[in-house]
């Protein structure tokens, strides 16, 4: 009896190792069920002797739940197989072994279990993907405040995934290796785009007679182009061509000069066009000339552009012709223009007419 009890206690102690929960439960259930059947038979025989007219409640259950009797265990019938005894013995020896004893086992791959991190430093020594991205010059610190990007990069395999993207951007698109790092820093989500989809978008640009060098320049400057559908890019190119009466070569030159302008918010583009034409007083041909010379003007806030124009045109007395030659003055910081104009005015050098003496160029 004592030996069986020790065996049961040992089995319960190592139940996760032996997975014997089901074995004990089955034995307990079988014995409990027999006991309950015996009790049921006795109570049924007693009910047969009840006086006529006595009603038996249909809600009464004569079989108690198995959980109520599961604490009755006959330990005398419980035994362990030799295999189970061997497992317990091996586990005891392993647990009694001191961590200070010398060992030949290589544990260099074992790392401490740390909570979630917001930096790539923890994975730098073990992740080939992160090492290759760092070699390319990717600014990994820019991604560390974005959990979605962190999960994407940590779970990206270099050999089967990242390597294919690097070859595509460099060999198919033509982006120089020196530009791959900054490009991926701007748009890491390109690494989850399908390669076939991006290839189709590159083929669309080639079909529109974009030169290979221009395509590489566009993608390097503004890689988000590859996230837009072909229909979206086609609609935007048509919008610029019709709105500003551009030729095909002018559209391609505009895309290469400032690719992000093509995917910019259309409402802002329309607001700037309205301000240039209606509030500033430039004609359509002049607006087209300004667009090709300084497209960044259309990415600015229309209200701020109008304020800068009013100061340059009204306070500095600069005519439309001079502004048309140097449209970048409209995107300069107004306080800087005011400071320089005030300084020139204090010296008596606030002369912006090239036909007169002491002329100061808008560029200067």
Number of strands: 0
Radius of gyration: 40 Å
Structural class designation: mainly alpha
Q: Determine the mean pLDDT.
A: 79
Number of helical elements: 19
InterPro entries: MTERF, MTERF_sf
GO biological process, one term: mitochondrial transcription
Family: Belongs to the mTERF family.
Organism: Diaphorina citri
Keywords summarizing the entry:
364 residues, mainly alpha, elongated, MTERF_sf
Short characterization:
The chain has 364 residues and is mostly helical. The protein is 59% helix and 0% strand. It has helices at residues 2-13, 15-18, 21-48, 66-69, 82-96, 128-136, 147-154, 158-173, 177-186, 195-207, 212-221, 230-243, 248-257, 259-262, 266-279, 284-293, 302-315, 320-325, 334-347.
Structure overview:
This protein is mostly helical. Among the domains are: 118-192, no CATH class; 194-263; 267-363, no CATH class. 59% of the residues lie in helices and 0% in strands. It is built from 19 helices and no strands. Helix 6 packs across helix 9 (177-186), helix 11 crosses helix 13 (248-257) and helix 15 (266-279) runs parallel beside helix 17 (302-315). The longest helix has 28 residues, at 21-48. The radius of gyration is 40 Å and the shape is elongated. It starts with a helix and ends in a 17-residue tail after the last helix. One of its GO terms (cellular component) is mitochondrion. Pfam families: mTERF. Belongs to the mTERF family. This is Transcription termination factor 3, mitochondrial-like. One of its GO terms (biological process) is mitochondrial ribosome assembly.
């Amino acid at each position: 009896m004592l030996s069986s009890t020790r065996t049961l206690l040992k089995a319960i102690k190592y139940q996760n190792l032996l997975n014997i929960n089901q074995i004990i439960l089955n034995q307990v259930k079988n014995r409990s069920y027999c006991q309950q059947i015996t009790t049921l038979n006795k109570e049924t025989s007693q009910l047969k002797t009840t006086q006529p007219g006595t009603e038996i409640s249909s809600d009464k259950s004569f079989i108690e739940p198995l959980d109520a009797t599961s604490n009755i265990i006959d330990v005398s019938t419980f035994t362990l197989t030799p295999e189970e005894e061997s497992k317990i013995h091996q586990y005891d020896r392993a647990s009694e072994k001191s961590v200070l004893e010398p060992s030949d086992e290589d544990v260099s791959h074992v790392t401490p279990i740390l909570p979630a991190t917001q930096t790539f430093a923890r994975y730098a020594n073990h992740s080939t993907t992160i090492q290759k991205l760092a070699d390319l010059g990717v600014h990994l610190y820019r991604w560390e405040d974005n959990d979605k990007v962190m999960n994407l990069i940590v779970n990206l395999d270099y050999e089967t995934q990242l390597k294919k993207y690097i070859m595509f951007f460099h060999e198919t698109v033509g982006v120089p290796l020196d530009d791959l790092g900054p490009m991926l820093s701007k748009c890491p989500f390109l690494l989850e785009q399908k390669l076939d989809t991006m290839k189709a978008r590159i083929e669309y640009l080639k079909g529109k007679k974009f030169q290979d060098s221009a395509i590489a320049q566009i993608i390097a400057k503004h890689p988000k182009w590859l996230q837009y559908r072909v229909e979206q890019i086609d609609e935007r190119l048509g919008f610029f061509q019709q709105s500003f009466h551009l030729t095909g070569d002018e559209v391609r030159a505009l895309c290469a000069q400032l690719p992000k302008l093509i995917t910019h918010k259309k409402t802002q583009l329309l607001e700037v066009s309205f301000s240039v034409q209606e509030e500033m007083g430039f004609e359509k041909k002049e607006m087209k000339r300004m667009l090709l010379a300084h497209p960044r003007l259309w990415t600015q806030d229309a209200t701020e552009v109008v304020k800068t124009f009013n100061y340059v045109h009204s306070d500095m007395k600069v005519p439309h012709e001079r502004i048309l030659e140097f449209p970048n003055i409209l995107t300069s910081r107004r306080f800087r223009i005011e400071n320089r104009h005030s300084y020139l005015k204090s010296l008596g050098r606030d002369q912006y007419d090239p036909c007169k003496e002491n002329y100061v160029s808008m560029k200067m």
